[in-house]
Task: structure prediction
Amino acid sequence: MKSSSKKLKIRSRLLLHFKLFIIARLYLFFAWRYFWSRKTTHAINIIAWVSVVAMAFGTAALVLVLSVFNGFEGLVKTLYASFYPDLCITAQEGRFLSLTAAQLEKIRSVKGVAAVSLVVQEKAHLQFGDYRANAIVKGVDSRYAMVSGIEKYMVVGKYHLGNAAQPTTVMGVGLEQALNFQADRSVQPLTVYLPKRGVALNADPLSSIRTGNIYGAGTFAVQQEFDNGYLLTHIDFLKEIIGLRGDEYSAAEIKLSNVAAQKSVIASVQNILGKNYRLESRYEQNRSLYEVMRLEKWVIYAILMLLMILAAFNMVGSLTMLVLEKSADIQILQAMGASTSFIRFLFLAEGLLLACIGALAGTMLSLLLVWMQTTFKIIPLQGSFVIDYYPVKVMLTDLLLVMGSVLSIAVLAAWMPAARAARAKISLRGQVN
Result:
């Protein structure tokens, strides 16, 4: 009995799907014939094609703009990955945290943790000859190159930080230019002025300032914010100057072996350290930046959608004139027993057909342009940057969003003419010659 009832359910579902398929094909057949058939008024065909072209260019513009935003977002995330780790441990209160050797060993043993680097960061004043600049000095340990991708952004010299007794530095290319300092060949050291921890400003401000000399090793070029304001050196040198204890640091930066395991790693590390430590993902470290980028993307999307709505008025005019053109056909269908819902969906299908033709053409055009940009670098990016062309990246979710938005606008635009066609009264008198 159960098997027979299951078979009946399957048959009924198949029959329902078959009926829906037949009905859809019927609507599509009528819509296709109405679209390609010759009208008594040639302007109807022209307006129909204008609406298709408008939908095509609107769809192409939406896909291209979203792709450009995706490309820049991916590029920014890649660049920020050189200075912002997958996870960052800082103190809940204060500027410095304490981490024991036992705690570090437990963190490094957590599944999903690839490397842990200890860093100390402090604002400093730099001087080379008559040139001066303010920057952030970041002292890092030997594992920092494993956590960040800084080595692949070296443009001059090599990544080498020396040791506590003889520290060397790699700095941003903008900072190097501001100091007129040739990091890879200068024989004179760079003087660094740093505040000494625990010493308050008094009548003699110089007593709260300590200086150190650093020789150059190389220059990196990542992004303007980092290139103009960061200098990397050995962590022990920086700790000694500002007066930190052996287990005190500004932060611990973590490289994940699998980003998908981020939540489980955060939970495990938080359990090891307790509530006095803050763990932040790369997104949380740059929350404002990512939120602004996402907001810009959706604002542009909303503006382009308004233009698509304006373009849809062409469709309203085209379908309205088509309803007037096919009034005799509508009355014949009604006389044959067609319901008002059938007539309504018939002209809704016509609107969807126009939108689908335009949307598919626009999508194909945008994909072609994206391929040409990524292959031939047609549109260059002006100014000094890591890449010399506009980055583009097509995402399936954006394509589905654009197609869904275009079809939704088409349904709304076609609803009024379709409703007018459904309300047409039967009057066949005078139709037969």
